[in-house]
Amino acid sequence: MRLALMWEARAAQGRGAELLEWARARVLAREPVRREVFRAPQDRVLVLTWWDAETFDAELPELPEPDAELITRPVHRWRFESVE
C-alpha cells in the first residue's frame, strides 16, 4: 500500500524562513518514494512524504519536532492511505 505522512508546523513569529530551511534540511533514516515541502501564510510549513508500506501503522521515519522556540505549537501529524 502507499502511505502519505503529513507533517505540519507553524513557526514562531518571524521565523517562517528558518522553519522552512530546518524542514528541508532534515535527513530521514531512509528515503521516501517522494517528498514535498510547502509553505503557507502565517509561517506554516508542510512536509508530505510517500512510502510503500505493508500496513497502515507500519514503522516509518518521520520528521522530529523542531526546537520549541522555533514553533508556536506542537507539530501536527497525520497518515493517509492512497485509494487511487
What does this protein look like?
The protein has 84 residues and is mostly beta strands. It has one domain. Helices cover 12% and strands 37% of the residues. It has one helix and four strands. It is elongated. The model has no long low-confidence stretch (mean pLDDT 96).
Strand order of the largest sheet: 2-3-1-4
Tell me the β content.
35-45%
**Nearest-integer average pLDDT:** 96
Tell me the count of domains.
1
How many DSSP helices?
Answer: 1
Low-pLDDT segments: none
**Quick one: how many beta strands?**
4
Instruction: Note the gap between the termini.
Output: 10 Å
Q: What is the chain-wise order of helices and strands?
A: EHEEE
Globally, the shape reads elongated
Estimated radius of gyration:
13 Å
Structural class: mainly beta
Sheet with most strands: 4 strands, antiparallel
Helical fraction equals 10-25%
Protein name: ABM domain-containing protein
Organism: Streptomyces flavochromogenes
Blueprint of the fold:
Blueprint: E1 2-10, H1 16-25, E2 34-40, E3 44-52, E4 76-81
Antiparallel strand pairs: 1-3, 1-4, 2-3
Protein name: ABM domain-containing protein
Characteristic key phrases:
ABM domain-containing protein, mainly beta, 1 helix, 84 residues, 4 strands, four-stranded antiparallel beta sheet
Short characterization:
By secondary structure, this protein is mainly beta. It has one domain.
